[in-house]
Write a structure and sequence with these properties.
This protein is an alpha/beta fold. Helix content is about 45%, strand content about 15%. The relative contact order is 0.19.
């Protein structure tokens, strides 16, 4: 199969590719307890949906001790990654979202495509989450939460890396972001990319479409997904 032009696909992880069954939040709460004691987890009262890991830590630390220095954020993220592998491995609710494995296998056979990640997870956390589902080898590159706290900026990094993998300029590529939150849609727009929304993370496809997703589906099993990924009407 051949796509009409070189295309970079950037998949979000949490709520789009998989659910860790709360392992990420449990790991973050444990990391804050490790670093700040019992007052640490109390700072994590907000939703993490669509946020980058560094932004999550920054927001929480700010409520504890004011604007954090980079080393303070790094200390929490190191503690988080140290806990994450254990939490993911023991999570009883870990699951790959419907249609994901089939779509990824199909995309791998489409010419002139680069399949990567566009995720707020730091790189170490991203591949830890993917490894349990044997998907860590599927994504050779990405834009990660350790590349930028702003989601649009990290997607731009992922798009450049995908273009480099294809051996073309990023301006020559179609970039497609696949995500489940309004923040995914907004970030895709920020870099001029198409967005395909999925309802697997709790936000309805109709809401994602209203916010500007070019296409939005309940999940990736929808028969129209492959045409949407290829940019067909």
């Amino acid at each position: 199969m051949t796509s009409t032009r070189p295309t970079v696909y950037l998949f979000d992880i949490d709520g789009t590719i998989l659910s860790t069954g709360g392992a990420g939040r449990r790991s973050m709460e444990g990391a804050f307890r490790d670093v700040y004691g019992e007052r640490g987890p109390a700072a994590l009262t907000f939703s993490f949906a669509g946020m980058t890991d560094r932004a999550i830590v920054r927001m929480a630390v700010r409520t504890i001790e004011g604007e954090p220095e980079p080393h303070a954020i790094d200390a929490v993220l190191d503690a988080y990654v140290a806990r994450l592998e254990h939490e993911v491995s023991r999570s009883e609710s870990y699951r790959i979202m419907p249609g994901v494995s089939d779509v990824l296998a199909w995309l791998a056979g489409v010419e002139q495509t680069a399949i990567g990640l566009g995720t707020g997870n730091i790189k170490r956390g991203a591949y830890t989450k993917l490894a349990r589902g044997s998907l860590d080898g599927t994504f050779a590159f990405g834009g990660f939460g350790c590349d930028a706290e702003d989601r649009g900026e990290l997607l731009a990094v992922g798009a450049r890396r995908g273009a480099e993998a294809l051996g073309v300029a990023v301006a020559a590529c179609r970039v497609v972001v696949i995500g489940d939150t309004p923040k995914d849609v907004a970030a895709a727009h920020a870099i001029g990319a198409d967005c395909i929304g999925v309802g697997t993370g709790g936000v309805s496809p109709s809401t994602l479409a209203e916010l500007g997703a070019r296409h939005a589906f309940d999940d990736l099993t929808d028969a129209r997904v492959r045409d949407a990924l290829l940019g067909r009407p």
